[in-house]
Structure formats: C-alpha cells, structure tokens
C-alpha cells in the first residue's frame, strides 16, 4: 500500500527554487494496475523517482505499507529499492557483459542471497517470461522485446512490493510493446502492484486506473472501464 | 555481494579491457620486478662473495702478525714476525673452541716429469693438515710426522697434477719427479681442492703439491711456519675463536713490537653489505617512483572507468546497491588491477633472474620477503589510488547516472 499526502518536491532553493511536485495526495492499494500520465514537465518522472526511492521528497509524507519512509538515509533507501521496488526502464538497462541469467540475478547479489537460490530464482523467472532458451545469451544477442522481458524478470526476482515501469514500451515496436503489456497485465492478475509511467493513451488503456499529472498536481484520477 | 563475487566481477572487467589493463599495470610491473631483480642480484652476489671468502674452509680463519711499533729513534721500522714453532701451535690448539691450528709455509717450484714442465705451488704442511682440511686420499699415503722430523724428500701430488703430468696407466706413487732440478718421491695422490675458477688460471692449471713444511723451509730458506690458520669447532664462533687464538699466540711468542690478530672475514661482507644497501636504496627509490606513477595511472584509468560506467552504477544503485557496495566494487577492481600487476611483476622478475643466472657468474637469489612486500605494496597502491575513483562512483546519484548518455 502506497500512501502519499501533500507530497512536494522542489529543486534548488531561494529565488531559484523550482517546484516540481506541489502537493500530491495519492493512495495506491496492493494489486492495483495504475498508469501515471502527463505531458513532459508535469512531474510524473519525479513522482516515479520518489515512489521508487531514487529521490526524496521535499515536503509531505510517503508511507509504504504503513511505514513513513521520510527518515530513511541513503543506505536504507538502497535497501528499500532492493526489497520493495522492481524497476523496468524504457532503455532496458541490462548490464551488457552479463548474460540474461546474471542480469536477472543482480538484485539478489545486493540482497545477499546465496548463489544456489539466485540461480534457481533467475532461471524460474526467465522461464516465466518465456526466455527459457535464452538464459545464457548476452543482451547484445537478444531482441528488444527479449531484453525487456529479461528486465521484467529482473524486476520480479526480489519479489518486490511494486513494479515500477517507466515507458516500458517506448523503445519497442507496437507488436512487441503489446506483448510486453500483456506480460505486465498477467503479472498484475497474479496480484502484483504495477505502476506504469507513460504518455501513450494506448498503453494506459491496459491498466485499471489512470492518474494524470499537470504542473505538479494530480488533475485527473479515473478508473478505466473496459 | 560477497568478496569473491566482487573479485570475479573485477577480474571480468579487467579482462574485458585487456590492453588498457596491461598498460595501466605496466608501472606496477616495472616497479615490483625492478626491486625483486635488484635485490636478487645483490643477494646472489653477496652469497657468492661469502662462498668465495669462506669456501676453502668455512670454519677456518687466518692469523697474521701485525706490528704495533712503526718507529724507532725517528726512523721507520720493519718488525719481522717472530718464528712460530709447532709446539706453540699445539699450545694454541688448547684454546677453547679451537679444533685445529694449521701452520704451513709454501713456495713455487718448477716441476719436471715425463717431459712436462709446470710451475706449481707447493704447500708445506704437517701431519695434521690432511685431516684438518678433510682432504681425500686417492692413492698412496699421507705425509706423517716422520716425514717432517727427518726432512724426507717426499711429495703428495693432487689429482690435477696426476692427470696432466702423468700418463693414465703410469704408477704415480713411488715415481720420482724433478722439482727445481732436484729429485723427490711421490708418496700419495689426493683429490684437488682448487676451486673451479682457479683451475682456469695458468699457474694453477696443473694443480698443487704438498710437502713436509720442514723440507720447504730448507728448500726455499723460508720460516717453517709462515701462514697460520685456526679452524674452529663451531663456524658461528669463528671470529671470536680466531681472536682468542691470536691472543694466545701473541702471549706465547712474547713479541713486544707486534701482535697476532685474526683476519675478520665478516668485515668484507659487511663492507659489501653497506655498499650494496646504497645501491638497493637507490634502485628502490626509482622503483618507488615507478610505482607512484603506476598508481596515478591506475587512478586515472579508474576515473575513466567510473565515467564510462556511470549508467551501470546508476542501474546497480536502482537495483539496490548501497554506496558501500559500489565503493567496494570499484576498490576491489583497482586492488585487483594493481595486485595482478604485482604478480606479473614477480613472474617477470623470476624470468629475468632465471636468464641472469645463465649469464652472470653467480645465481641471483629471489628473496621471498621482497616478493611478499611487493604483493602487499602493489595491493596498497590499489587501495590508495582506488579510493578517489571508487568514492566518486559511490556518490553518483542514481537518477542522474541513469539519465547519463
């Protein structure tokens, strides 16, 4: 359960202060499938960074599963990212010299999981995303869609609370993009909370709830009726 | 992520940039190998020198007469060493720690035999000499007390003389040889103890000869004993034993114008050591500069690596890597790089010393302490010069790092 109240984020200070988020009140329950939309400069990326513990808010509160995370220091933020957040990026961000399996294992390395269990979990998830035969391939030997599947497997490997996907189909053709969205939808059906940041209506349409940001404020929060 | 995983990650990163890594390590390789090679050469030379000084008799020390008065009535004075007798030497033998006291004299004679002619050193000895020097008798008999007492015109030849001056099937024992145109009888043949480097010299190429020292004294008009060597029971106490024996001999001879002293061989070694220490320090400081420059090179390349891998660092942070974990990863990478350089340097040094052993007249000896210091030092360089880049990497903000193009 994610709860944001009167969350603000300001870059710089004094006369140079640029407010990016100006008081966000938002609740995302477990198992929701949410799209955050908005034009560039609306603050949606900043919001995602704060939800993903990559950045800290200037004001207001952020609680995850009832716990206020305002006091967390940098090390604790790293731990929260590792434990609760599974990132999926537009540019995949796979480590180029590690094969698919090793890429998926990376978050487990930082969680201090034993090698045996790392291997088992990584192989299991690669199987789940349909890359059973590609576990030993380097990212350069995979197609865009396959790379994003590896990234999704990596996002899932630490059994996070939330999957945060930033324009997950932005670098893919529409057919492959649709397959990735199907995969994310399936994960949501299995109970995962999935938050997607996108500016494409078509992508947002896969989700159950659309939140629209403009100038640092939520201007729309609606259920998607299919 | 445990240490071993960080280490394998570091190795794969180094392996992926082979040429760059080798070039970066070069300063470390040169520095470490230079120190090891120089110290190995020095230790080898020192060992060789010690062997040369002590080789003939590891536990023998010569006594010589040193005059204490140089002037008489304003004029320079030369003090003759007192005549030393066999009885006096027997008394010196009683000094604690002394095993044997060898009184010898020597002369050079021209030997003629079978139409061979050779100039040869003849050592005048007593009956103890053979046992004290641990010589090996090959044919015939040793010289005995009677030979000395009766001025017997007998000689023992060594294996080199036997080989060069006698036919292989010729009976050497009992043969009459000519020395300075006088006949002497060969009574025994012993294994030559001349060091190999002496055998190449013309004057020693035909070996040496042993005769009763009384006979030598008569032949050459020299004192019966002009060279005194003390053999100690314990080689470790050689110098002390030598000085004690010298003191006793001075007392026995009762000379007022001079005294016997022991020649302190270790002084030569010490002198060499201090000379060699200077060279070692000099080379080590040059090697130190090489290591310093190497370290700066490592720092430079690590900074480049951090910049190149900004996105990787950002991603790793997003996946949950803490600042400490990133710091450790880069630090281990730089330590691995420099330690590897140190190891290659050691390997290179081993190779060079092996080649030098073939070329030099002595074998360089690799000092394990220097090798260990080399490894520790190169690892330390990795830490010192890796801190800055590793710290820079750990401080990158994940958002900025992920956005980095």
From TrEMBL, chain A:
Transmembrane segments: none annotated. Keywords: ATP-binding, Nucleotide-binding, Transport. Pfam families: ABC_tran (PF00005). PROSITE patterns: ABC_TRANSPORTER_1, ABC_TRANSPORTER_2. SMART domains: AAA. The keyword Transport applies. One of its GO terms (molecular function) is ATP binding. It comes from the Bacteria. Residues 2-226 form the ABC transporter domain. PANTHER family: ABC TRANSPORTER ATP-BINDING PROTEIN, IMPORT ATP-BINDING PROTEIN. This is ABC transporter ATP-binding protein. It comes from Bhargavaea changchunensis.
TrEMBL record, chain B:
The chain crosses the membrane at residues 21-42, 275-306, 335-359, 365-388. InterPro entries: ABC3_permease_C, MacB_PCD, Macrolide_Exporter_MacB. Belongs to the ABC-4 integral membrane protein family. It comes from the Bacteria. It is a multi-pass membrane protein. Residues 21-242 form the MacB-like periplasmic core domain. Residues 285-398 form the ABC3 transporter permease C-terminal domain. This is ABC transporter permease. Keywords: Cell membrane, Membrane, Transmembrane, Transmembrane helix. It comes from Bhargavaea changchunensis. It is found in: Cell membrane.
